[in-house]
Amino acid sequence: MTALVNVFVAARGNEFMRDIAQWLVEAARSVGREAAMVDDRLPTLDGSINLVVAPHEFFELSDFPNADLQRAAAVSICVCTEQPGTPWFHLSVDACRRGLRTLDINPHGVQALLDVGVDARRLPLGAVPSMSAPSSPHTERPVDVLFLGGLDERRGAVLASLAPELYRLNTDLHLFRFDRPVNAATPGVVFGDRKYQLLSSSKLLLNIHRDRSTHLPAGANPPAYFEWARMIEAMANGCVVVTEASEGFEPLQPGVHFVEADADEMGDAIASLIANPTHAEQIAEAAYDAVTAAPQQHRVMFEDEHVRVLQINLPPFQQEPVHVHALPSVIEGETGGPGGAKFAYIQYRFLNGSFIEIGRHEVSPTAGYRAVWTQPEGPHAIANLSGVPVRFTRIEIKPEGCAGR
Questions:
Q1: Per-residue pLDDT tens for 359-381?
Q2: For the chain, N or C: smaller number of CB within 10 Å?
Q3: Is 389 helix (H, G, I), strand (E, B) or coil?
Q4: Could you say which residues of the chain have pLDDT below 50?
Q5: Burial class (CB in 10 A: 0-12, 13-18, 19+), 219
Q6: Is the pTM of this model over 0.85?
Q7: Rounded Cα gap, residues 187 and 164, in angstroms
């Protein structure tokens, strides 16, 4: 019997954290776990896996006695979401030191936690089905440029400098003050399905780094933080991200999955993408596939307007996340003979918030090279059943309309 996954989040915290908590619940359910989001009690030692999203909010905003909070932290896995150097990051550290393990969604957060003696690991984010509005990278998008974020002096100055470009376009700015927890009643903020619908209606998402100078020592030069949660949401809805230079974006690639530009070059980048919709669509497609199609196992080796070549590598006794392939493909590679990898191809259906397995076909290695044609594939996953890696190449064939437009 597998353990229940409880994902804890502060009842009075930022609604953004509830979105992240819901992603984790959905991801756990997608691999067959029973999971629930909890905001009305503390974690306990009851045999469950206890994930605490944003410990700086969950423990700091709680009214429970300190002794109870310390016991709860000791049976929890903290999931950190805040940028190093900010007050919110430092508020997380005490709970992380007491917890069973600590995860962070950004590699810079992981390193900052390691630097203060917390044994932290990276939690790579990816898309879950509920994150994508009913659309695709090819959907009509009436909004040219979208911005979603808290307003500070730095962001305001960059947006003002872009006014000569943005005023010519259909631009939608959702701005709010980030001086207290935000919720659905906060002006300028959208969450959940409303946010995903907005992203699916927009061509470009503008990402401008917030001002962290007030939280850091004079002269400090912090790494440019890649806002993973915001990026994944945009990419899962076919919206091209235009961001200031960032670090910690791997395995995504600038120029392939998103556009990177300095603040004074963002206007030119926006104009170029609006003037070249085919190029923007290629980036949207590559990003959408990367965040929805098991990016840790799928590496883009080559892409143009006709094909995309993916290298798939699944380590021994591992299963890739449930994903889809929207394009027809040729799959080819050496099967490895008697010593090759045996794997299972598992089909799923999404029902009542979870993926339900509906079919499984085991494939045994045979001698020689194989190449097979496959149509677009619905929700599925490959499970490596052997002690050697599963390796093959997938060549996706793009529609003729993608070429020469």
A1: 999 988 887 788 999 988 877 88
A2: N
A3: coil
A4: 135-138, 353, 401-405
A5: exposed
A6: no
A7: 26
